[in-house]
Amino acid sequence: MEKIRAAITAVNAWFPEYRLTNDELATMVDTSDEWIMQRVGIRERRILKGERQGTSVLGAEAVKGLLDKTGTDPSEVDLLICATVTPDMMFPATANIISDKVGIKNAFSFDLNAACSGFIFALQTAVSYVETGRYKKVVLVGADKMSSITDYTDRTTCALFGDAAGAVLIEPTTDDTGIIDHLLHTDGSGRHHLHMKAGGSERPASHETVDARQHYVYQEGQTVFKFAVSKMADVAVELMKRNNLESEDIAWLVPHQANLRIIGATGKRMGLDPSQIMINIENYGNTTAATIPLCLWEYENRMKKGDNIILAAFGGGFTWGSVYIKWSYDTKK
Ligand code: UT7
């Protein structure tokens, strides 16, 4: 029997209107536009304002737009996966809430938590379902309201993160495009360097945890930086090698957007010219599970059917990996 391959057949993204600029951050903590641009490459990030506005608000907007754009009736969707580290609540899954908000009723849905690698881990999960032949329309949304777990009194983390969602439709293909190969990794011993200390079952929320500001991202920046630079590049280069791809064969690298210096180092190790790399960190910061689909959406009309695309990510866990896609369609937005 012919192997069923899965392909991304549409992309959409959504982000809130409010722009938190470096200049505004400099009124909150001891920082500057110059430091943030030089060390990280972020100029502004979008923030979802308002009471009781969770990640599902971002995710539902991205998914609604995806269904509209593709003329997909919500009843046709078989599965919805939401990659996030900032669920609306501990349970039920934010995927369930998004499905409800957009009218998806004939599907099952669940969340997947792999931090900044969430989108690529969930992509490979979605692909596995499609490759069984049983699931024809799978929606994957990477969504994070990082402002809900960012400590705006901590200058070492508050400049890094933003809020956004990106969604893709994944369907079976009949041609030789689609998601071709992947390499995914986890090393749980890295958890000590990047995590949120409280709010889980090990340290439930209490007055003490709130007073100790333990419901925010804790990151040992330099250690994470070193791992990110080596692991993201190693895995992308290994994926290139095992698929006999030279740097000139690659149309686009789509890297997780955590730090412009990490992106640059990864591209260099892969032998790429900067013009082959999708970059939008300056405008959105690190939106965790949303960075990669947000890039795909922004660059959608520059990709062509048959383009070799490499996704690469590194994040909390530690988690990291890379995915090789032969792009499946031409677009004019
Ligand atoms: O997406 C998930 C994975 N996460 C990542 O990949 C992030 C990886 N890490 C990084 O991107 C970088 O380590 C950071 C951007 C977080 C920090 O940059 P760095 O070049 O590693 O700076 P550093 O932590 O070594 O700090 C250097 C100095 C320190 O001051 P002292 O101790 O030398 O006086 C920091 O306090 O820079 C200071 N600093 C700041 N200064 C102005 C840290 N944050 C700021 C800031 N503004 N926002």
Could you walk me through the main structural features you see in this protein, from its secondary elements to its overall organization?
By secondary structure, the chain is of the alpha/beta class. The chain has two domains: 5-176, Thiolase/Chalcone synthase (Peroxisomal Thiolase, Chain A, domain 1, 3-Layer(aba) Sandwich); 179-326, Thiolase/Chalcone synthase (Peroxisomal Thiolase, Chain A, domain 1, 3-Layer(aba) Sandwich). Helices cover 30% and strands 25% of the residues. The chain is built from ten helices and 13 strands. The strands form four sheets. The chain has a five-stranded mixed β-sheet, sandwiched between helices. Helix 7 packs parallel to helix 8. The longest helix has 22 residues, at 221-242. The radius of gyration is 19 Å and the shape is globular. The two termini are 36 Å apart. 48% of the residues are buried. Bound molecules: oxa(dethia)-CoA. Oxa(dethia)-CoA binds at residues 31, 35-36, 39-40, 116, 155-156, 159, 221-222, 224-225, 228, 258-259, 262, 286, 314-315. Oxa(dethia)-CoA is lined by residues 31, 35-36, 39-40, 116, 155-156, 159, 221-222, 224-225, 228, 258-259, 262, 286, 314-315.
